[in-house]
Specification:
Blueprint lengths: L7 H26 L2 H13 L5 H11 L3 H28 L5 H25 L4 H29 L1
Length: about 160
């Protein structure tokens, strides 16, 4: 069982807000430009040949690329909503000492989706450069810390 200092979220709030900003910027950019849904299939098709993970390569070729419009829509809205949930709840928790069940659950969901998105990005394109690989791993580690903190906050509100 992970035991975290109750003051950790205050110290990590700047990092959590940075994660929120990255997802907000990415999701909003994809939505506002209006090209991502049309171009994801081509991007994945160009990069799938060099993917070192056979299972991921197979998934991209047989599921993601043929359904790239659905995956693109889920990705851009997932990024935007993830950024909003992490950012809004982090700001709320900075100004309010007490958390409730719903707030903790939204934060937990936000970090869980963020971690999932980062793993997907890493598996699909992490091999393309060391910066892509390490940034996604670093974000994943931060999101796991966020999951642990928000899960503990959720448990505290239920006891």
């Amino acid at each position: 069982m992970i035991i975290l200092n109750k003051d950790v979220p205050k110290h990590l709030s700047v990092i959590f807000l940075a994660i929120s900003y990255i997802f907000l910027k990415s999701g909003y950019g994809k939505i506002s430009e209006g090209k991502f849904v049309d171009t994801l299939g081509g991007l994945l098709s160009k990069s799938v040949g060099n993917n070192p993970y056979p299972m991921v390569k197979n998934f991209l070729l047989n599921v993601a690329i043929p359904n790239s419009r659905i995956f693109a829509t889920l990705t851009m809205w997932g990024e935007l909503l993830t950024g909003l949930s992490i950012g809004i709840v982090t700001i709320y928790l900075l100004f309010n000492k007490k958390s409730n069940k719903l707030i903790s659950l939204i934060l937990l969901l936000g970090f869980t989706v963020a971690a999932f998105l980062n793993v997907v990005f890493w598996l699909a394109l992490g091999y393309t450069s060391s910066s892509t690989e390490t940034l996604n791993m670093l974000m994943f580690v931060i999101e796991v810390v966020g999951i642990a903190i928000s899960f503990n906050k959720y448990k505290e509100t239920n006891s």
